[in-house]
Amino acid sequence: MPDQPDAVYARKLQEVLGGQYDEITVAMQYGFQAWNIHIPGKYKDLLYGIAAEEFGHVEMLAKMIAQLLEKSPMGITDKDVQSDPAVAAIIGGTDVQHAIVAGAGARPVDSMGNPWSGSYVTASGNLLADFMSNANAEMQGRLQVARLYHMTDDHGVRDMLSFLLARDTMHQNQWIAAARELQAENAESLPVPSNFPQSKEHTPVSYQYIIFSDGAAAAEGTWAKGEAPDGKGEFTYLSAPDTSAPMPAPTHPDSRLFGTTELPNIVEKTASAVQDKLHKE
Amino acid sequence: MPDQPDAVYARKLQEVLGGQYDEITVAMQYGFQAWNIHIPGKYKDLLYGIAAEEFGHVEMLAKMIAQLLEKSPMGITDKDVQSDPAVAAIIGGTDVQHAIVAGAGARPVDSMGNPWSGSYVTASGNLLADFMSNANAEMQGRLQVARLYHMTDDHGVRDMLSFLLARDTMHQNQWIAAARELQAENAESLPVPSNFPQSKEHTPVSYQYIIFSDGAAAAEGTWAKGEAPDGKGEFTYLSAPDTSAPMPAPTHPDSRLFGTTELPNIVEKTASAVQDKLHKE
Amino acid sequence: MPDQPDAVYARKLQEVLGGQYDEITVAMQYGFQAWNIHIPGKYKDLLYGIAAEEFGHVEMLAKMIAQLLEKSPMGITDKDVQSDPAVAAIIGGTDVQHAIVAGAGARPVDSMGNPWSGSYVTASGNLLADFMSNANAEMQGRLQVARLYHMTDDHGVRDMLSFLLARDTMHQNQWIAAARELQAENAESLPVPSNFPQSKEHTPVSYQYIIFSDGAAAAEGTWAKGEAPDGKGEFTYLSAPDTSAPMPAPTHPDSRLFGTTELPNIVEKTASAVQDKLHKE
Amino acid sequence: MPDQPDAVYARKLQEVLGGQYDEITVAMQYGFQAWNIHIPGKYKDLLYGIAAEEFGHVEMLAKMIAQLLEKSPMGITDKDVQSDPAVAAIIGGTDVQHAIVAGAGARPVDSMGNPWSGSYVTASGNLLADFMSNANAEMQGRLQVARLYHMTDDHGVRDMLSFLLARDTMHQNQWIAAARELQAENAESLPVPSNFPQSKEHTPVSYQYIIFSDGAAAAEGTWAKGEAPDGKGEFTYLSAPDTSAPMPAPTHPDSRLFGTTELPNIVEKTASAVQDKLHKE
Amino acid sequence: MPDQPDAVYARKLQEVLGGQYDEITVAMQYGFQAWNIHIPGKYKDLLYGIAAEEFGHVEMLAKMIAQLLEKSPMGITDKDVQSDPAVAAIIGGTDVQHAIVAGAGARPVDSMGNPWSGSYVTASGNLLADFMSNANAEMQGRLQVARLYHMTDDHGVRDMLSFLLARDTMHQNQWIAAARELQAENAESLPVPSNFPQSKEHTPVSYQYIIFSDGAAAAEGTWAKGEAPDGKGEFTYLSAPDTSAPMPAPTHPDSRLFGTTELPNIVEKTASAVQDKLHKE
Amino acid sequence: MPDQPDAVYARKLQEVLGGQYDEITVAMQYGFQAWNIHIPGKYKDLLYGIAAEEFGHVEMLAKMIAQLLEKSPMGITDKDVQSDPAVAAIIGGTDVQHAIVAGAGARPVDSMGNPWSGSYVTASGNLLADFMSNANAEMQGRLQVARLYHMTDDHGVRDMLSFLLARDTMHQNQWIAAARELQAENAESLPVPSNFPQSKEHTPVSYQYIIFSDGAAAAEGTWAKGEAPDGKGEFTYLSAPDTSAPMPAPTHPDSRLFGTTELPNIVEKTASAVQDKLHKE
Fold this sequence. Notes:
The structure is a homohexamer of 281-residue chains.
Chain A: H1 7-18, H2 23-36, H3 42-69, H4 79-82, H5 85-92, H6 96-100, H7 127-149, H8 155-184, E1 208-210, E2 226-227, E3 234-238, H9 262-280
Parallel strand pairs in A: 1-3
Antiparallel strand pairs in A: 2-3
Helix pairs in contact in A: 1-3, 1-7, 2-3, 2-7, 3-8, 7-8
Family (chains A, B, C, D, E, F): Belongs to the manganese catalase family.
InterPro entries (chains A, B, C, D, E, F): Ferritin-like, Ferritin-like_SF, Mn_catalase, Mn_catalase_dom
Region (Disordered) (chains A, B, C, D, E, F): 238-261
């Protein structure tokens, strides 16, 4: 539990409770991947287990936020409080809905007050793609927790973050291990989806690094020459796009959609020119 | 250009134009990563270049959608059309805003009509985290394009998708190559962020696989034993959570937030019991 | 499990998985109310318990949706399929992201594809207000499940809905019982929040039914005469609003916000009239 | 009108203008319920009348916000202002769009700047469910106004809030009275919808309190024994869930959705094992 | 009232009830402009009056939608209905929340089911900017109504649309008249805001048409030569951007944000190169 | 580049990067209008060119924001910083996601943290409507930049804003010139869409100014008498609405939607009255 209340920090902590890359997101993401999975066994059990753990982290963070808000000045009228600019400053940085809407409780929103959204969840049914998505979520999440660690001196809060950092270390490693295992078992490989027939993609550009902007330094990278990570091609290098795709003609949809098209105007303008001429004569 | 109009397919194609993991997203994501980058050179040039290429794909898809909508029946009154259930069925599957709002044009929305959102963009300033996010986006994106490939027989559309599939192959490989290069150069390593001092995380659980749910098969994975992918620890295994974190006491925030707390009730109930007793006497 | 696949029905079922008033909402709502609660004991345990049950319902629905999608035609190219208007019609009514994004899996969205939002959750810290919110959620939820029941003949689906309907019956009753218990224990009463001092509200209009529109029949209701449900006042009746609040003067904010105000114009117009006059002379 | 400008408070007041449970919400909610109603008479007139009154409250709040913003420092450059930390603190707590976007005017957003959303509106066509939703909205709304009352000392603002508190008292009572009247007239009863045939729900669990989590205190409540509020059943008590629903087999959707399934892997792995063996020999 | 039910058309009509540019939007937009206005008199009265009229249109559309939904097949189980592909097709095109959520009622959403958003409203406090925004809204709105007119043969619906088209004609004309009147009275002129001192803008590029893309035909327009509409400058023409803004150096924020910067890497790489050398020796 | 860091101002600047009316919006809006256009030539080239320029402004603003954030205190623990209320005040006004999520980088959000939304984009296919929408966007945009100009003293920032103000002057003029040119060429005229047959609108009210609210001053405007701006009608004036549209009967949808209707109640109430009577006898 925190050493002392801190409503401004409570707001910041909302990011790892209800933000794009954090506990509600990973709990729901691993849940949906588990419920939609096509194979029984270790991957399914892994997803179920970590989902359950992450729901525990949601609770841990929600309770910490409520503790941080408990005795904090939240803009409630009190002459001493109001006349102290330092306190006023603290009030300036709070999530004002913590007081007005939740009565000093946690909320399913991020640190800027945006409600958590189902659009944060990725669950495609392709496990290699999804495990990479999970590794990505754990990386962004651990990065945010590490940043938050330096924004407080509170021992109770730091203890909790220290625990979350360790679990994020575990989960990053674990999704990467799982992604490797999938590939080792030939269940899936790069490029995802690997069982889409290579013959159906336009292979001349499948491993070609094409420079579309001014910076030439990009040619120095390992993505511009040598074997590609998928082991199925060799990177080549093209200093500028050479294909100028032929532009299709503009569309002329049904006139009852009242778009602006050239045809009626030409007719009309001709007619009006004729009329003008007749009038003058 | 498409062989023929197909308003239902135009709607589906919106997913890879304006959905969570597609062309507007990657164009903006690589753009924001480039604008916020902290180092000059090859990574910056790479981000700029691919961002520019992806904006080209946005245009390519928008134009294809407009072509697919050009002559398609879109529910405009016409006796022949209305009495044909097959045509009516087609209408059932369209994005009705294509006709009503855009006059047969593309829109910055996904295949269910949700507007594209800035929350899809990831740009954290940590390049390893962000390159993993980019690899993830290209995997989910290529998967969606591969699915869309089988939902049409149109040669023009398939040609375009075939091209996009090849570029997604390239981009998946490239972000993975870039992530490896970052690690080879010691710019960053696992777990992200690697320069957060390990001493500050609760290391006893940093490599511990803890079973939180029923499925035991997860213990068979490479994430439950052996060296972790970050090379900094050894996975251990725990068959059930052993730490029962002590529950903090419930909070009692300022009474002017009018939450329900036990204290006032006890007072009130005692008072009312006393009153009751007095009344009866 | 369902008798047979039905992708159109799978889409409809999303409403009670990821819509405003359904399983994810109630699971999260009861969770946040439990984490933020100010008192230990029966109400806290109740909230925890029902939250856990509702997470179970989330899983139940997600799996049913995946089963319904398993073998369903989802617009994948196939001559027989495409030429059959009935099948095409079915495709018209699906959530196209089920196939393109989730690979035939459930998603955290409602039946029109809107992602689930944290803004659906209510947790104010005042238990009477929140239990009423819970009763409301269970009523709207049961109503939607009842409607869905008649939209399918599938025995497996109906069995699941029949189970959910029974639990919603239980939960409606239970939140109403809990709301009554809170009042019986004097923890809270109507109007919420009951411990806001009545002296601070403008009591002359606290129980006054004022007619603001044409319909006179509203005067016949029990809300227009007799004792109010809170037992603290008597309803009175006013056939039309009688107070015409004095209109404040329009605001004149800082001119550097460049709003349109009368003052500068008058000056300018006078100046320009003078100039005009001078020019003419 | 307010005694003096207060841009920080103006922001807080946005919650009851444009938040989830406030004036725009109730005005629109009662409006949609009125427009969709299936019966003429007192309920319809009630909905129309209160909707009209609530639109008046929207105006009242919007104008008060504009007055509070009129002369407030809003971060506009001015040496005296900038060097005063108290003023700077005030600026810290404002809605910066008040100045930049609205030129010191009210906006249709909540106190954290989230735009008002049509998803806040409930109008199901079932009047008992909807009147409960209305009572819920008035409770949450009055709670928020009561909290805001203590966040200011301004007499003009408190006068307005005092008036709104009184009307919320009226409206809470009124929707509860209306809900009772509906039940007294047998138009609808608990559980909602009451005319769904009870025979079609899985009645063995309709009144069963099942403990899904650790807290045993919940068994003490009136929701665990005795007659249920709907008068149609008797609460029973079950100390733990006893039904372990049989898990359905994982799904195997169309392979052209490129999900990860066990089948191809087994085939592939066998093939590759055979190849390996052959190579070694 | 409509000749007959049509649930598919009811969904389309939602666009002009709850979409970006329609009745709820204009009603709320004119309302907020009126409540925030800085001057009394004709402009204020105009805004109030049209706002009131538009709320009437909201009601008109909501009721029409409810009528269109009244007897329409909405996917409710019925063997005859289900086996008729034409009916199934109709079901494919409906807003399924009309039945499940609203019980055959109108909803505050657009034709793709997106909830109406407060972000659609424009009210800046600058009347010329806002009247242009109003004219824009009426143009997009009338365009959508005109498109909808051709998507039905129903006499009742067409009568209503015919009325709305006429009012949109009036309102387009009126906002343009009001914008002209503001300019005639010197209350505001182009460019908005006209009282921002011209000396503070970078005037060399204030009237310069610069070609940033390939198309040269744009040089033929009246925007490339001659007097500008604001009467304050002469358009000039530049065939390509000539200023290459100097690129700022990449940022190096606080290292506790754990971004990727070159510095630590160079140090680390040098150290590791030294170590490598030592090891080899 | 800025004279010095200013995280509070960086947040404000987000409004013109990722807000409703600013650089991402106009870049995408002109892009979609260009991709969907129905005619080749000058209008198309104009749209492409300005879209490209606006993408350049997006980059300019993103980089400026990153520079402003570079060395700014962002709530990172540091005793000196924390104990200084002025610094704390600054922290109060920042976008906390700038530090936590983006590591001191720009984000695709507005100044209150709302993610940029595809719903901000207007592209209808009707060029006159769209050019008016573009003029509107440039007006609101320039107004916001002008307001931001006075919220800082930083020379580097003011230089950039001064440049943007000049380009907004150009673009306002240019879209108005383009709108006039379209009309001069008879491609489109008022009211939009001008080629919708006038005979199909309810012409008696097409030019009638009807007073719907109390303010009589609106009758003084040029919108109440004289020729309408479209040159196709004469404004007339009506002091109050005279048509009282006949109210349709309430709807009675399918009873399986469980709405509240009068019929079943009457039956039920009669039955129950009969039963009551029988019981009593």
